[in-house]
Amino acid sequence: MRTQLIALGTVALLAQVALLRELSVAFFGSELILILTLGVWLLAVGVGAVSLRPGSRSQPSAAHISRWFAAMAVILPAALVVVRNLRPLLGALPGAYPALAGMLLAVPVILLPVAGPLGRLFRDLAVLHARRGGTLAAAYALESGGSLAGGLLATALLLAGASNLVVLWLAAVTAAACGWWSYGPGVQRRLVGIPVLVLLAAGPWLGGLDARLTAMDHPDLMAVRDTPYGRLTLLHRGGQKVVLVNDALVHEDQGTATEELVHLAALQIARPDSLLVLGGTARGVIAGLLQHEPSLITGVELDRRGFELERRLLGPADTKGLDDPRVGIICDDPRAWLRGHRRRFDLILIHMPQPDSGLSNRYYTREFFALCAAHLSPGGVLAFSLRSAENYWTPLLIRRNASILEALRRSLPEVTILPGTTSVVLASRQRLPGPDELARRFMRRGIQARLMGPAYIHYLYTNDRRREIAGQLAGVHPPANTDLHPICYQYSLALWLSRFHRQLAGARWLGWTPGSRTLAAAVGVLLLAALLMVVVRRRRPVTGGGSLWVVLWAGWYGMLLESVLVLAYQTASGVLYRDLGILLTMFMAGLTAGTWWFDHKWPSLRGNRLLRLVLAGSALPVVLTVVLL
Q1: What sign has the CA pseudo-torsion 104, 106, 109, 111?
Q2: Cβ proximity of 302 and 333 under 8 Å
């Protein structure tokens, strides 16, 4: 049973990582769905583990376990097909938001048929392992060890360029092979081996199958690629090319938003010499900046694979200028690159996706703006765009944008915002020029643009919307968006929810500062937990029924701490999509080590003293987390 337990852990972790990544894409890259799906996954495993009570007549056997493994080889590919077609199944148009209730209901509907059988398999294998002289703790340690291997394998496959489909295919092949191997010789073993042969035969066509599955939701698909930072999808229809990152729109080549940002930013500099572009260099930015005759343009791209795919497939209007000798492209995390260099620039252009997720929000925080400000030359300008609304800003949208501007003003006090469907934000330490000077520079440099011109520049600076929005922004004082308090992430989530519940757009429920109330709530929860532990301890010993409370507390505590660390890791590194398997592997490694140690040491211990010590010592990771964050 040891081999089956290890294989089960490998299959479970591979399937978990692949499906969590797929659901993250289905929810437009929101990391919060990872926390929800991870909790649902663990609950489903628990439901599967208790689906058959110990006193039941039906007892596990090798044939029984073999059939379950074979069933997993069919269930896993079916789950991937459902996730890839989730929005069409819910009746949503491509690119549109489906009903929130349907999306949330889909999570347990998809995960229960996958995680439930895995829980049942673990229970049956653990029972058989115990019958053959092992212990339940040892069975858990073996399964956790397999999960450790699965997490490392899932991460290595993505680094090698494999898609999520390949990860799930490998999990299905492992499950089918384990089912075939567990069965005794005979006709039924040959039948169980059929899924193995089918899956192995499908291996050479996985690349085309991945594209076909994606095209079911995106019929105009040009290319799709899983990268360490998410899924990049390119669409082409009627001469228009569109770029999606985690299915969220980041660029379309027939719009003028990029042109507007580039020229308004470059015109702020009297003589632009050295320019820095953070992200999106293959999306029409470089060609526009070259019209202002800089000496050097440095582009920093977060995603090497995504940049190469865009450079190869986007049109010449977007990629023009990338081969110019004045242009240098570096593939690195912009935050890490800025920390490692001391060069100064006349203009820093942030062309990253909108702050709708933890990955993108890390480029709109007070800490990142301070990092950019340190690399600006005297009179240098920082520029970026914010998705807004042209005619009416809801209170929630005002607070979202104000939290970013509040973070920006801590480092660059002179801020100009030009509202529109996509608002342009300009910031510097010195006063920025007015529309007359910008119009003169535009004419003097002979800029060629589809929308931009002297008349349009005057319109942006003098229309009533600008004064109205400035007054609305001055009337609110939300917390500044920071790494440790990403309030913009909260506002963006609420903006998304307001699409389904319009009353949330009023933002009255967000009009308080969360610090003191959150602290009071946390203290109240801790006091309540302490009270429950005291009551349970007095009524029954920890080794009796009270141990259920300890297990419940351990699950709650572990999930809470893991959620905090996962979101913090995304803020710090931005590669949660790639390293999700590693993070879950580290978690499983801790579970494996702890289970193994107690399995070997517990029989020699007496009483509950050590258990109390472990429970008290579990506060140490919380303290370390607070200090490290």
Answers
A1: negative
A2: yes
Whole-angstrom distance, CA of residue 415 vs CA of residue 410: 11
Do strands 414-418 and 248-252 pair parallel, antiparallel, or not at all (unpaired)? Answer: unpaired
pLDDT in tens, 382-412: 999 998 887 888 888 899 999 999 999 999 9
pTM of the model: 0.84
Positive/negative CA dihedral, 366, 372, 374, 380 = negative
Residue located via tokens 């998809």: 110
Contacts of residue 536, defined as CB under 8 A and 6 or more positions apart, other chains included, come to: 546, 549
- Contact between residue 158 and residue 22 where contact means Cβ atoms under 8 Å apart: no
CB 566 within 8 A of CB 34: yes
- Nearest Cα residue to 407 out of 364, 353, 372, 371: 364
The number of residues making up the chain comes to 629
Number of Cβ within 10 Å of residue 32's Cβ equals 16
d(Cα 616, Cα 137) in Å, to the nearest integer? 22
598 contacts: CB under 8 Å, gap ≥ 6: 137
Give the pLDDT confidence of 59-96 residue by residue, as tens digits: 677 777 888 888 888 899 999 999 988 888 887 776 66
- The 3-state DSSP composition of the chain as helix, strand, coil percent (nearest 5) reads 60, 10, 25
